[in-house]
Each structure stands twice: as structure tokens, then as C-alpha cells.
Design goal:
By secondary structure, the chain is mainly α. Helices cover 71% and strands 0% of the residues. The two termini are 24 Å apart.
């Protein structure tokens, strides 16, 4: 349970940092409902999709690493 909590905490932090980078360095208006206009109306569904993507990738990668290391530890290698 401790490993899962640490893995999810790291995943939330990384996903939040990547979403922050994408949102506040939105040079070409990727997250705007109306790209090309002066005012950017944020498309929150796109932002949530970006956050979810990073959350799944990082937590899946960390979960796989934990599984491999625990398996190797159990087999004595």
C-alpha cells in the first residue's frame, strides 16, 4: 500500500507539472476554444485529457518498475 501511495503521489506531481507547462506555455493556442483570437478561452476538457495522459503514463511506468523489482527480489536475482 505504501508503494502505491508513493507511486500515485509521484504521478500526480509529474502530471500536474506537465499540465502546468502545457497550459502556461500555450504558444500556439493548443488549449484554446478559439485559437488565433486575442482572448484565449481555455478548453478544460483538453487540459484534463493532458493531465490524465501523463497520470496514466507515469503511474503505469512506475507500477511496472515496482512489479519487476518485487518479482526479481522474490526470485532472489
Amino acid at each position: 500500500m505504501k508503494t502505491l501511495t508513493v507511486s500515485l503521489t509521484i504521478s500526480v506531481i509529474v502530471a500536474s507539472l506537465m499540465t502546468y507547462q502545457g497550459l502556461f506555455h500555450n504558444v500556439m493556442g493548443e488549449f484554446c476554444h478559439n485559437p488565433g483570437e486575442v482572448e484565449c478561452d481555455i478548453d478544460w476538457v483538453m487540459v484534463l485529457g493532458l493531465w490524465t495522459f501523463w497520470m496514466c503514463i507515469v503511474s503505469g511506468g512506475l507500477g511496472l518498475l515496482v512489479f519487476v523489482f518485487k518479482t526479481l527480489k522474490r526470485t532472489g536475482q
